Amino acid sequence: MEIITRRHRRRTALAAGVATLAILLAVACGGPVSPRPKTVATIQMKGSDTMVNVCQAWAEEYGNVAPEINVEVSGGGSGVGIAALESGTIDVASASREIKPSEHEKIRQATGEEPLDFVVGFDAIAVYVHRDNPLDEIAIEDLAAIFIEDGPVTRWSQLGVTIPGVKSDEIVRISRQSSSGTYEFFREVVLNRYDFKIGSRDMNGSKEVVELVGSAKTAIGYSGMGYANAGVKILRIASRKGEPGVEPSVENTFRKIYPIARSLHLYTLGEPAGAVKDYIDWILSPVGQQIVQDSGFVPVIVPAEAGGPRP
Asked: Are 113 and 128 found together in one domain?
């Protein structure tokens, strides 16, 4: 024990000496070491789980642009972010859907401010199946028949699909929690605002949906197109039976060819000012929009592959 203690003391002393030498060398070579800028403002962002990755990527890069500004990002769902904006506990709410009129009115009554909407990108909601599923495309009406309340499709064989290596072809439906903007949008566009069939496995995050689909051969789920992994396949979506399916891509989303596409939003209480305004302006700049595209979403500036200038 004494031997270990002496070794520890020698290592500690050596580390301290190395650190001191590094500082002395820095001073000798170029003057005093520049201190890290102090945080002068913290921006709180909360909301969409679909957008949490791009929000974190923005925050990390902005730390290099404006190191004195600390951006804290959390998820929970679009509805959670909008509720936090109503309570005044955050600066910016992220949402993968438009704010509801009822939410708008609650915010106005609670804060005296009108929520201001910034469209910061677009997303295609992709439909995922296990990679061993032979299905390559599906029509909206068949998708609805799987997920809608009292929907008649409960087995893959009803769609003429045979999945190899399974004893039961019962469809495992993977969905999102009800506070999710993705849940709301899928319900509106695919289910025509009817309720979901009970018995689905409702996940808290977009990534978790895709991971679960990849672990169950008879599963199907929906999530942002940027969350694909090697264990899943993305289906082409046909607006109607008999029409060709369309894949979710940057070009198809921007041109509004893909039928399950939506806008991505940031909401503030009234016109933003100071650090919040600077941050949103930066998000909408070419640098911020490139991060949108790098994160698997579609920027608001026309991407090059859709016939316009690259952001």
From this structure: no
pLDDT in single tens digits along all 311 residues of the chain: 333 333 333 334 434 444 443 434 444 444 454 455 677 899 999 999 989 999 999 999 999 999 999 999 999 999 999 999 999 999 999 999 999 999 999 999 999 999 999 999 999 999 999 999 999 999 999 999 999 999 999 999 999 999 999 999 999 999 999 989 899 999 999 999 999 999 999 999 889 999 999 999 999 999 988 899 999 999 999 999 999 999 998 889 988 899 999 999 999 999 999 999 999 999 999 999 999 999 989 999 755 544 443 33
| pTM listed for this prediction | 0.73
Whether residues 91 and 134 fall in one domain = no
Whether residues 110 and 54 share a domain: the answer is yes
Is there a contact between 186 and 203 (Cβ–Cβ < 8 Å)? no
* CATH number for 108: 3.40.190.10
Q: Does a structural domain hold residue 282?
A: yes
One domain, residues 206 and 287: no
